[in-house]
Structures are given as C-alpha cells and as structure tokens.
Write the structure tokens for this entry.
Amino acid sequence: NASKYSRLARIFLRNRELADKVYNVFMADKKYLDSAFAAIDEKFGSFDNFISEGLKLTPAETEDFRNYALE
C-alpha cells in the first residue's frame, strides 16, 4: 500500500494542476459531475481516453489512481 500511495503522491506532486482538478472532481456536486462527464465524452469519446490522452497518465499511474479512488 505504501508503494501505491507514494506513486500516486509523486503523480500529484509532479503536477499540482492535475491534483487540484482531481480534488475538485471528488468534491463536486452531481450537476458538476454530469457536466464534466458530458464534456469529457464529447471531447475524448470516453473517460478512459480522457485519462490516457487528456491527463496523459501511464497505464501504471491509471491503475494506481483507480485503486486509490475505489478504496
């Protein structure tokens, strides 16, 4: 677990703007989330495409983030 958290922390320390955006998504109300997901689908076609193309996360970073977010 420590390794997973340290990798996630390195992602967010490397990119403060990304960390702020992720924080805002998790603190948002339903209307904001619905709007955000609609915009993501329109621009990237899927949330997975947004993660890889928009946020430019590697598959390992994506897996770490998913595991962290779903705990």
Remarks:
- The chain has a mean pLDDT of 82.
- The CA atoms of residues 52 and 58 lie 7 Å apart.
